[in-house]
Design brief:
The structure holds two protein chains of two kinds. Chain A has 14 helices and eleven strands. By secondary structure, chain A is of the alpha+beta class. Chain A folds into two domains: 216 residues, no CATH class; 171 residues, no CATH class. In chain A, strands 6-7-5-8-4-3-10-1-11 form a nine-stranded mixed β-sheet. A two-stranded antiparallel sheet of chain A has the order 2-9. Chain B is of the alpha/beta class. Chain B has one domain: P-loop containing nucleotide triphosphate hydrolases (Rossmann fold), CATH 3.40.50.300. Chain B is built from nine helices and nine strands. In chain B, helix 5 crosses helix 6 and helix 6 packs parallel to helix 7. The longest helix of chain B is centred in the C-terminal third of the chain and has 16 residues. The radius of gyration of chain B is 17 Å and the shape is globular. Classes of the chains: A alpha+beta, B alpha/beta. Chains A and B meet through helix 1, helix 9, helix 10 and helix 14 of A and helix 1, helix 2, helix 4 and helix 5 of B.
Chain lengths: 426, 229
Amino acid sequence: MSLFHLVIQEMQHRKMNFLLGLLSVVVAVACLVAALTLLQADEIQTELILEKKSVEVKQAGAQLEDAMRKITKGLGFNILILPADEDLSEFHLTGIVEKTMPEDNVTKLAESTIVTVNHLLPMVAKKVTWPEKECEIILTGTRGEVPQLERALKKPLQQLVPEGKMVLGYQIQKKLGLKTGDEVKLMGKPFKVSQNYPERGNSDDSTVWINLKEAQELLGMQNLVNAILALECNCATEDRVAEIRKDVGEILPGTQIIERGPPALARAEARNKAHATAVASLEQEKANRIQLIERHADFAAVLVPLVVLGCGAWIGFLSLENVRRRATEIGILRAIGLRSSQVFGIFIFKAVLIGLIGALLGYFLGYGIGVIWGKLPESIQPREVLFSGRWLLLSLVFAPLLAGFASWIPALMAARQDPATILQEG
Amino acid sequence: MLLELEQLSKSFKSGPGRVQAVDGISLNVDTNEFVAIQGPSGCGKSTLLLMVGGLLSPDSGEVRIEGTNPYRLSNDQRARFRSQHLGFVFQQFHLVPYLNVLDNVATPALASNRTHARERARELITQFGLEQRLHHTPAQLSTGEKQRVALARALFHQPKILLADEPTGNLDSENSEIVLKALCQFAENGGCVLMVSHDDQAVQTAQRVLGIRDGHLVTPDESETLVNS
């Protein structure tokens, strides 16, 4: 005969009390474990989603990059029409066109039926010293777009710099501390700064743009231009520069044509944009998932303690009821010599036993709920990622403690019952 | 002297005043004695028995069992003392409802960690003719069988003193006879029995009969008067 045997027999006898107590522990543990498992499943899902999204984004980025490359290719490219005697080696070294050609060439081109060039921009450009500021600049005069007779009028790609206005490259404005709206003099002529360009990392940063006519006057180049810029040119053939050279050569014999702006730059920009879009999308998804997990964690932080408290109170009530029903039994056990600590032990031992059984059942119930509601993909074995020996151990410690604490006061009451009173009443 | 009671008194609060349940009772009981105390319900019989049994502390006076006053022991020591020296039999049997006969008889082993508890329990069960009921629960037993189980349980530790509170109160004459015979046997075998009862037939089995009136022990003559009244 042992206390264990006594407790087991009593649990078998008062099945309802035992089952209700067990149910409480199972609910409390299952709730705790389900919450932990679901949060774990959330994190795993997040990792999977982000991983998948990352691959998708990479693919989408590649597609976008390719699409942008095609689009930029489809949109056309820029060419520069230069005087026949311009030394191209010198031009590539300095970025300045030394030779000139008649401004009339632009008119000829605009009035022709050529279809491979678009948006004609005549310009003069010369490296000069800005006498008032004592700094070297590339003074560029630009007239804006020349309308082509054979085409419908489009919105110009590059706006005309109005007379009396000035546009500054990044290094110039930075060096001279000039802002939009400032009034300055250039070679004795007054100008108002109308725009400051951001840094481009090329000779544009040291350039000052003014109206073509004013630039021609200041540089003594009336009716002359250094180059004609043609933007968004289109070709049907692969060797697009050769095709344009042929077309332009028929109208302006002796001119030279080079492609302006490396295509690699456009592709790099496209790639960067696609990458930035992908990263932003990935970050957004990550933020959404973190928000979702936080919401779940907040919910669990409220629900689990409430359930545990409720279950604890219910176990306490059941223990109290058990003590009340067993008053005579306690009296006779005390009469035959059981110490009050042994009586206390009977009730605590029963609670701990219920806690242990409830912990096992509750853990697997909670784990099952976590697996079902966690909705992990079939490729993942829940046992490998969600089953946690640590949580099982935690349950096996937590549940007996919960049941033991909840039964503490009823067990003390049982231990302190006066056997004489009980036996006199019995 | 096995049992000595000296000027035992106990009162209980009852409404605005107090009821003197036991008032200055002195009694000596030695081995091989079977003493019956007779009196009507509520006269203080059970209170006296609980005080002797170390379960109810007297307001004044002393209880000595083999020279030891159990109320001078700590709670745990008194519990151990009880299990070693005393056996209890109650009118309501007070068997543990979910334990079978074998386990009920062996229940005192919980207090003493006695080895071979089941063997001892089987021995007693056989002695009381209950070997066919070994695995029956109290609900499956007759009242006589229940009291025999209670008696077997009381004798488990071979106590020196058996305290019986109306042991035949719920029994028919046949079972009463079995129980009373067992009590006599216990006394003859070196123990002592202190039985409280209002049953005339039961008290006649005892070697010494005392009455209790207004918390006082009275002489046998007085007791007879009391019984007749």
